[in-house]
Amino acid sequence: MDYGNQYSTTSYGAGGGQNGGGFMPGSQSDSPGGQKGKYGKDTLRPVTVKQLLDAPHPYPDAEHFMIDDQETTQVTFVGQVRNISQQTTNVTYKVDDGTGVVEVKVWVDSEVMNEDGQDPKKVTEQAYVRVFGRLKVFGNKRHVGANVIRPIQDFNEISYHLLEATVVHLQSTRGAPGDAKAITNGAANGAANGMSTAASAQLAGVSASARKVFECLRNSPQTNEGLHMQDIAIQVNMDVQAVMKAGEELLGNGVIYTTIDDHTWAIMDM
Amino acid sequence: MSESTPRITAQYLEQFSHQTVRLLGKVRQLRGEQATIDAGGNVSIYLNRDSHLQLNHAVEIIGKVQNDLSVRVMACTDFGPENEIDFVAAEAVVDATHRYREIFYEKDT
User: What residues does the Replication protein A C-terminal domain cover (chain A) (predicted)?
Assistant: First the structure.
């Protein structure tokens, strides 16, 4: 499978060298020019269409959506094409993956490199396709602006994608496999079970970043007053806001408590 | 929202009676407008004019579950010879669909 290639067209490092200008030649042709500074946070997430339709849009001009409380810009999914509509500036596909239907728009000028006179992607109605793109909203309606839409070659890609989307969803909402009922990688389960069971029991149900903060608190040398969140931020290499949010989660779960001030935390061990 | 077609296997037919679902199964019998597929258990399906099924192929059916737990087919897609499809993965998908249904469908009953 050539998944590796697809990732690189949308990731940060790939096209930077070509123009030397710090912006991406392969990116969405309909993006406004001011995108330069934002690629550091671009992520690619496998999703179901239902997740796309349900994802909260934090504020009207936001470039990202929230899926499982994580900022999401680019997504990938696999579904069946129900309808193809050729328009002047784009081709609009209606894609159904069994969880919902979403419109996928491929802008015509990004097709310039392909042959004239035939549909270069060979995407036909009722065919299953893999889509890479960004979720966008226009008024009340959501659609996906696609960089890539291609027919799948192997029908197992459908099962693979749905299972991958499930794993990523569970990792974001419940933390790494170990307490989750992971169906896929048995090896990952085995490795994660090696971590302390006491910690697992307390941490069941927190996000991955909360786990990191907790592990840092557990393992770092500190006085009995605990660690300030700035120190934690440096150690785990996260934003202070993300550490603050993780800390609130852990405080809510009762696994840490505040000491000399609201931002200094220690592990609650009885 | 109600355009979702949850993936199921034979054991879920009763739970999804009168709903539109997806089944992935192996074609076992063809009898004119009726057929039998093995989707974790035998399921009777009633075909429409556009369905072209082949024996021992894997097929994905979108259809409505009837009172007698047969399925009236609305659309079908041939997935090729059955030995090319990983049915263990497909069953895992059905399991995940119902266990973590929040990303797959709205449970409205």
Answer: 169-263
